[in-house]
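Please go through the sequence and fold tokens given here and tell me how the chain folds. Record follows.
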Amino acid sequence: MKNYDVIIIGASAAGLMCAIEAGKRKRRVLVIDHANKVGKKILMSGGGRCNFTNLEILPERYLSHNPHFCKSALKRYTQWDFIKLVNEYAIPHHTKTLGQLFCDHKASDIVNMLLAECTKYNVEIKLDTLIKQIEKLEDNFQVNTQQINYSCGSLVIATGGLSIPTMGASPFGYKIAEQFNLKVWPTRAGLVALTLHDTDKQKYAALSGIAIDSIVSVKQQTFRENILFTHRGLSGPAILQISSYWQPGEILTINLLPDLDLLSILKQKKGSNPKSILKTELIQHLPKHVIETFFTKELLDTTLATMRYEQFAQIVEQLQAWQIKPNNTEGYRTAEVTLGGVDCDAISSQTMEARTVPGLYFIGEVLDVTGWLGGYNFQWAWSSGWVAGQNV
């Protein structure tokens, strides 16, 4: 039996941050992971360049059954704190659209920084290790692995969610929560592409690969970024964002021409160039394939002079209030995050400790906290990991 002050299950963004902070406090820390390398999700994120935080972190950009839970951690360890650490390691980075920060070179720069910090504070990391059982004894936890048994006073669950199972995602963290009688909210894929019903899939399949700056809405939630037509449905940043709010059966409303008063343009063109056909006017604003998919050849070949304003209104509605009912999401296979998870009401927002199980902590994606696309989920990992690290 080997004894530690803190054992962290999951060499994730949150797990490594927690380990570093606990190590700074001279705690004896062990990180255990079943994977063969640390930070796998960090390494593949942002197209291999790791969108490690966002300049515009706000609590309202996180989804949770307890929307106030994330506020304390995000306030105590901010994006500026993490950026300061990145700068200390002279990692070159840049800001992209909507405040997203990316490494200039490789995501491994972030992983190497975290590992260097772990080394500095004597954190031990054990990979390729499967946990067989976790038990709560009187004043500590026993963690039994295939190789050796460990004990600790503080046990931290940083195992993430179910997204991208090929990266090793599993429901392990949820099972631990349930073992200790903590509520787990039902999970579903978030920040994920949407599939279409067969009829729509056939209709729009020819547009696969085309991206369009759009406004996408469902219920009261709206995002403006690119949408991307795929051979199975819709993707792109705006679709990934809205997917976290969309529920099966709901209809999306999409404006494919956000900055255009198309109705006024068509009316004006009818007066100034009545012999022009509809197709000539529309392909000035949208790709030819899109126009030909949305409207019949007969309509597109109609001259503006012969068209009524009511027809113009219908065309505008089709392009600027296009309604489509997705079939489903692509699921955890490609999802960037998992919605739902360990109930935040069961966890202290000040310490990340389970209220009814002293010494048991949950951080990162395993909790019912899901951020927007664009570095928000990494910031939640850094923030929640930092908070737990001050208390374990």
About this structure: The first helix runs from residue 13 to 24.
